[in-house]
Amino acid sequence: MAKVYLVGAGPGDPELLTLKALRLMQAADVILYDSLVDKRILALAGSRPRRIAVGKRCGQPSATQKQICALLVAEAGAGNMVVRLKGGDPMVFGRATEEMAALAANGIAYEVVPGVTAATAAAASLGVSLTRRGVARSLHFLAGHGAEGGLPAHDWVSLAKSGGTLVVYMGGQTLPGLAAHFIEAGMPTNMPAIAVENASLGTEQVIRGTIGSLPRAVARAGGEGPTLVLIGQALGASDAVKETLRAVSEHA
Q1: Which of 95, 167, 197, 204 is deepest in the core (most CB within 10 A)?
Q2: Is 89 a catalytic residue?
Q3: In this predicted model, what pLDDT tens digit does every residue of 192-247 receive, in sequence order?
Q4: What is the residue range of 21's domain?
């Protein structure tokens, strides 16, 4: 039966792909995939499905969201089982709303299959929890790049005063403006901040600093992969973790 599955491919590492995502990929007639989906993940689908690249990359020729929605409707309308494979999780900056609306408007059944999002993959790699009792009781996911280019409009003052951990997706290129807004809104310049490029992949690069120093450090590194920016006191927990481990070992 024709149906569309909006599937999260995870942050990149094929081993972080869910079993359900793998099963659906291998059973699909056609896969429409984003440019951030690792080639090794696509290879796991085998030879059965057709593959259509619909990735959107900044500054490069890419399919529009309208074209992607039209393709989903056309492929499902032809009786195909379709997997729309998205990097990370479909519901986290994955434009799933537009695609679900287009499918619903055409009477096409769909299902969302969650995936590991880059924020949790980066936290696991860093060995630092994004939340921490008494330090960070909230977690905020922000877009660092708007559809029109540049920084989206955020309530910078509220975010700066939230006391939680901020995770900025697609924040590499707009990091200087992002940092300037936060500092102007009252965030201390020594607030811990970390940039993670290509989270979970062998090419992962981690740049540590503060909200004041990180923009220059990222610019010097000159990375080109998708970059996640994490900001907050919880990121400075490495010393506390070391103290805890030391205390445990002393009492062992």
Answers
A1: 167
A2: no
A3: 999 999 999 999 999 999 999 999 999 999 888 899 999 999 998 655 555 554 55
A4: 3-113
The values of phi and psi at residue 111, to 5°, are -145, 145
Q: Compute the C-alpha angle 63/64/68, nearest 5°.
A: 75
Instruction: Decide: residue 117, CB within 10 A, 0-12 exposed, 13-18 middle, 19+ buried.
Output: buried
18 domain residue, yes or no: yes
Same domain, 125 and 102: no
Kindly report the CATH number assigned to the domain that includes residue 179.
3.30.950.10
CATH code assigned at 108: 3.40.1010.10
pLDDT in tens, 156-199: 999 999 999 999 999 998 999 999 999 999 999 999 999 999 99
Do 133 and 227 fall into the same domain? yes
Tokens of 114: 């969650």
> Closest by alpha carbon to 139, among 117, 162, 116, 121?
162
Q: Name the catalytic one among 13, 29, 34, 155.
A: 34
Model's pTM, two decimal places?
0.88
Give yes or no: residues 46 and 141 share one domain. Answer: no
Question: Is residue 56 flagged as an active site residue?
Answer: yes
Q: Give the C-alpha separation, 8 to 20, whole Å.
A: 10
Which of 3, 29, 56, 86 does the annotation list as catalytic? 56
Cα 207 to Cα 44, 136, 144, 181, 185, distances in angstroms = 32, 21, 17, 20, 24
Q: Are residues 71 and 87 in the same domain?
A: yes
CA–CA gap between residue 18 and residue 171 (Å, rounded) = 26
